[in-house]
Amino acid sequence: MLGNWHAGIAQITLSTPFAVGDVHAYLIKGDALTLVDAGVLTNEAWEQMQHSFSELGIKIHDIDQIVLTHHHPDHVGLVEKFPQSTPVLAHPAADRWLYRTKDFADYHREVFTEWFAEFGVPDEFSYYLDQLMSPLDYACQRKLDIPLTDGMTLPLENDWVVLETPGHATSHISLYREKDQILIGGDVLLNHISSNPILEPPFNKGEERHKPLLDYIHTLEDLAELNPLTVYPGHGEIMKGGVRELVEKRLKAQEERAFKVWDMLKENENLSVFEICRKLFPHAYKTQLPLTISETVGQLDYIEAKFQIKDWNQT
């Protein structure tokens, strides 16, 4: 459950109820004491975090600030357990997810209802619309105190620079320390699985939707150029080198999947997004429709950008 301090960083591993399994939070000990990410809001995860703190001789009130790499519930839930006086830092795009309003929930459902119709999702799957926000039961309900954007130095910890790394989430950031080339990366790059670029409602009504896969490809290309020596991820093993090679592997697999979709469209240009999704994920689409639809739309966005194909989303 608890990693040793190394280079002023300690890894804390917390259980989650999600298919991804355990999630890592990190303590940074420097001029201040910073917690990066905060697991899910469950009693089990809270007990694990308290136990880890105790082993390190740390109390909850010792935490000077909490930095969130992104807004997903497995990374933010236990923020709820910390004093209101402990500032919460994240990308501005996280704010609407960290402190959710009924208006946002209604807007979220409205957008996905429109998308489901546009993507040709049959009515029998409409029950997913009632479940879209349910994972956020494990998230916090806290306002963002300090927004973090690209190139900022981390307050109280000036060795660390904020990098915007969108794709998996519009709010995704990573922390980079140049002197030893360490990246605390959240879910931006995982050794054992690829991160899903996930569809999110536009920031404002009427705006075009985000294209998370295209964002993620750009992020991966930037990571390959940065080529950190060590990556502390949100899930799985710490990576010691090999970032460029892993990015190349991810990008190659992505292109192969896109060409698979391209072949489908060449055979039948009238396929709906849902029909392509079902072909790509013949089993998973039944139990993970929002994720598989996000992945499918991402592939179509990629094809449109690469080949200038239009109107693929017409059913």
Overview of the molecule:
The structure is a single chain. The protein has 315 residues and is α/β, with parallel strands linked by helices. It has a domain at 9-99 and 140-251: Metallo-beta-lactamase, Chain A, CATH 3.60.15. 36% of the residues lie in helices and 16% in strands. It has ten helices and twelve strands. The protein has helices at residues 43-55, 73-76, 95-98, 102-118, 128-131, 212-226, 243-267, 273-280, 284-287, 289-307; strands spanning 9-14, 23-29, 33-36, 65-67, 88-90, 146-147, 153-154, 157-164, 173-177, 182-186, 230-233, 239-240. A six-stranded mixed sheet has the order 1-2-3-4-5-6, covered by helices on one side. Strands 7-8-9-10-11-12 form a six-stranded mixed sheet, with no helix packed on it. Strand 9 (173-177) and strand 10 form a beta hairpin. Helix 6 (212-226) packs antiparallel against helix 7, helix 7 crosses helix 10 and helix 8 packs across helix 10. It is globular, with a radius of gyration of 20 Å. The model has no long low-confidence stretch (mean pLDDT 93).
Strand and helix map with partners:
Elements: E1 9-14, E2 23-29, E3 33-36, H1 43-55, E4 65-67, H2 73-76, E5 88-90, H3 95-98, H4 102-118, H5 128-131, E6 146-147, E7 153-154, E8 157-164, E9 173-177, E10 182-186, H6 212-226, E11 230-233, E12 239-240, H7 243-267, H8 273-280, H9 284-287, H10 289-307
Parallel strand pairs: 3-4, 4-5, 5-6, 10-11
Antiparallel strand pairs: 1-2, 2-3, 7-8, 8-9, 9-10, 11-12
